[in-house]
Known about the structure:
Number of strands of chain B: 11
Oligomer: heterodimer
Shape of chain B: globular
Strand content of chain A: 15-25%
Order of helices and strands of chain A: EHEEEEEEEEHEEHEEEHHHHHHHHHHHH
Strand order of the largest sheet of chain A: 2-5-6-9-1-10-11-12-13
Number of strands of chain A: 14
Amino acid sequence: MTAGWETVVGLEVHVELATDTKLFSAAPSRFGDEPNTNVTPVCLGLPGSLPVLNRRAVELAMAVGLALNCEIRPSVFHRKNYFYPDMPKDYQVSQYDQPICSDGWLDVPGGSRVGIERAHLEEDAGKTTHLGGADGRIHGAVGALVDYNRAGTPLLEIVSRPDIGSAAEASAYVEELRAILLTLGASDARLEEGSMRVDANISVRPAGSDELRTRCEVKNLNSLRSLRNAIDYEAQRHIELYAAGDAPVQETRHWSEDGRTHSLRSKEEADDYRYFPEPDLVPLAPDDEWVDEVRAAMPELPASQRARLHECGTEPEDAQIIVGRGLAPVVLGAVEAGADAKRTVTHAVQNLALDGAELLGIDHLASLVQMETSGQLTATQAKAVLGIMCERAAAGTADPAAIAAELGFEAMAADELEALVDQAIADNPEAWEKFCAGEAKVAGVFVGAVMKATRGQADGQAVTQLLVQRRDA
Amino acid sequence: MTSAHVIASEVRAGTRRATDVLEDFLGRVATHDGDVHAFNTVTAEQARAAAAAIDAAAEGGRDPGPLAGVPVAFKDNLCTRGVATTCSSRMLEGWQPPYDATVVQAMTAAGAVMIGKTNLDEFAMGSSTEHSAFGPTRNPYDLARVPGGSSGGSAAAVAAGFAPLALGSDTGGSIRQPASLCGIVGIKPTYGRVSRYGLVAFASSFDQIGPFATDVADAALALDVISGHDPADSTSIPAAVPDFEAALARGVEGLRVGVVSELTGSGRNGAATGGPAPGDAAGEVLDGIDADVTERVLEAADALADAGATVGRVSVPAVTYGLTAYYLIAPAEASSNLARYDGTRYGLRVEGADVEEMNRLTRRAGFGDEVKARIMLGTFALSAGYYDAYYGKAQRVRMLTRRDFDAAYADFDVLLSPTSPCVAFRFGERADPMTMYRCDTCTIPSNLSGDPAMSVPFGTGAEGLPVGVQVMAPALGEETMLTVAAALERAAPPLPKPPLAAVTGSTGAGR
C-alpha cells in the first residue's frame, strides 16, 4: 500500500445453501447430473407454475444469520426483473429491502470486527455455455446451450460493511465465514467450484480519514489468491488515478488471470430492475419459537472451537487447520474423553486430511490415541489404523481395536524388542561405534534393521530410546 | 339444457350414460360453435375416452364423483396436460403443458369431462374477447355483440348450451362481467379460496379461478369441487371448505343487504332502499352506469327486502379510485409475468442475429397490441423514479379499498351493485381503451380487496339483453353470498333463452 492511503473493502459473498431441493421447487438441488434433468415446471418458469418456499433453506439462512450475530426479521421476497436466457422467468426472486438477516458482525481471527449489513435469500440462475466463441465467452459465439439444473438453487448473499482494510483481512474474513458455513453444514462453500462466490467492493481513501470514495465492484474472484491480488491491484489503480488528478468511476470490473481488472459496465448504463414484491409468495415472518429452535440446533461455532483447542495447548495454526477440516468436535470430544491432547491434535493435523475424517466417532478416536500412548500401537501403526477408520467412519464401524487386530498389529513384548535391538547392534559394529561417538543420525541404521526384522511393526521411538540406553549404560 | 346437477345424479344412478350426455353437447358445439366461436380447441376424442371411463366406473359400481359425466369447458389459460393451452395468443399457439392445473385435476377427479378449451382476450387482458389472437367470441343472445371478457368463451359456451359448466379466471371482472352479458351465473371466489397453480398468470395478486353455470346451484356445486387449500400455491388459504350447496336453501330473513351508492348512480330511490345510509353523503357517484342496469339492481334489492332482508344504501368511497389503481398494479404484475415469453424455452420464437434481437422480434410478433400496451404501462409504473408515484400509490388505494369494504361489512352482510355498467355491446363499440376499461368499474373493487363476488342474472335491459346483479361478500363469505344469490334467482323475472337455443331446441340434451 502506497503511503498516505488506505484500502477500503466490503465483500458480497454468495453461497449455495446445502438443501436437498431448490429454493422454490421440489427438484433436486444437485450438480453434475445430465443437463436439464433436475427441473420441474417451477424451475423452468413454465406458464402457470408457482413457487413454494423451501423451509430448510430458511432455517439455514437463519442459522448463518445467528452465527453472524444478525437480527432475524420479517422479510419479503421481491422480483428483480431483467432479461437473460438462463433465467427462466426473466426475473429473479430475491429479498430486497427486507432481508431475513440484518445488522450483525463477524470477528475475524487476528482481531478485527467486520460489520454484516445483511444476509438475504435468492434463487440462482441456470448456466449458459456459449458455442464457438473464444473460451466459451459470449463474444463471437455462434450459439448457446442453457442448463437449468442450477436454476432455482438457494443462494444466501452475505453483505459486509466496508470495514475491511486490506487484502489479507479480506482473505481472513472469507476463510472465517467459510469455516462458519462448514460448521453449520449450511454450504460446502467451495470457491473454486462456485458454491461460494465473492465480489469485492474496493475503494481507497487518505489514511486516517473515514470518508467513502467511489468504489468498484470486482467479480470473478474464484480463489483467495485472486481476491487478495485483485484488491491490491484495484487499490493501486485507484491511488494512481487520484495521483494523476483523475478519479475512478463507479463500475463493475472483471478480474482476469493476467493479474488485472477490466471494466464490464459502468453505473450510468446500469439496468433498472423494477423491483416489486413477489405476489406469488406470502411474507416470511419467523416467530420467536422457530428462531429459538434453529438457534438451539446450532453446533459450536469456530471461534469457540478455536478457543477451546487453544486451552488444551493447540497452536493457533493447528487449531485453524482442525476447525477448517470440521474436526474440532471430534478432537475436542476425544480429549475430553481422556485422550492425550498432543497426540490427538497431531493426528488431526498430520493424518486426517481425509474424506470421512469429520465423521469419526469421538470414542473411536479417543481409543486409538489411548492404544498408542499405552504402547499397544506404534505411531506408524496408529496412522495406518486411522486411515482405515476414516474409510469406515460413515458406516460407524471404525473400532480401532478391531482394525488393529485385522492388520495383525499386536503390541510387541519389551524383551522381544530389546533382543532385536541388541541383534542390530551386533550386526552393525561400525555404525555402533559412530553412534557411541555422538553421531546421532546413524541411529537410522539400527531403526531400519529392527523395522525390517519386524516388517515395520516396531515403534521407532522405542528403538531409539533403547539405543540411547545401551550407549549410556 | 340439462343442469350439471341432473346429469351427475343420473349418471351416478346409472340411468344415463356419460357418453350419451357428451354426444348431445358435442352435437350442439358442432352445430353452433361456428357462429359463436366459444372454443379454441374442442377435445372431442379425449372427452369420449373420459366419458367412456366414467360409464365403466358407474357400471362397475364405483361412484364417478359429484360431477359424474358433466361436460366442462376450461378457459384456455388453464394448463391442461398434453392439450394446447394458448391464452389466445400467437405467443403460445400450440404449446402443450406437461401438467394439469390443480382445478383441472379437481374437476376431472370429480368426474367432469373436459369438452374443450375456450377463447379469451389475449392473456386475459380485455372485456370483450375482441383481443383474442384467434378472433372474437360472439354473444349467443346476439351474434353482433360481444360476450364480455376476458372469459367470454367460457361464458358463451355455457350460455349457448355447449357445456353445463365452465371455468374462467377473474382478474378485474373477467368471470362476472361475461356472465352478466351472457345471462348466466359467474363466481369470483375469495382470493386464495381456489388454487391458482396451473393458471397462466396475468396479475398474480388479483387472478382467481371460478365457475360459470346456468344456475346458482350448479355454480355452487362446481365451486365446492375446486375450492380448498393447495400446497402448490403459497397464496392458497388453508381454510376448511363449507358446504356451499347447503347455503342455497337458507332464507335471507334478517340478512343485511347494502346497495353501494357509488355504483348505483342516478336510479330512483326504491322504497326498500329507503333513505341515505350513514356516510352516504361522502359518496361520489360514478357516471357511465346505464339507467336500465341500475334499475334492475334496485329491483333486486326490493326483491330481497320482500324476502325478508334488511336493505339499505352504503357508501364505499374508495371504489371510485379502483379502476385507476387496478390499471397500474395489474399491468405492473403483468409486465413481469409476461417477461418469460422470450422465445428461449417454449412457444413462439422468431430468430434474430443475437439473443436480444431474438427476444425482441419474438415479443413483437407474439403479443397483440393490448398486451403490448399493458406491458409498457406496467414497465413504466415500476420504473425507478416512478414507482412510488404510480405502483406505490396504487397499493395505498388498495389498502383504502380494503378498509372501506371492512367498514361497510361492519353494517352489512352482503353488498349489491351492477356487475357491468351496461348490457352486451356491439363489436367495435368500445374500441377506445378507456371506454373498454370502464367495463370493469363495478367488478374491480372486489379484486382489489380479494373478497368474493358473483353475478346473478336479474331481468333484461336495453334490447332485451340480460342484466347481471353483483353480490359481494367479505373474505371467505361465499356461503352468505350464495344464499343471497339463490334468493335473487328465485325472485328474478324469467330470462328468455338465447335465440340460438330457441331455434334449435336442446338437441336432446334437455330430456
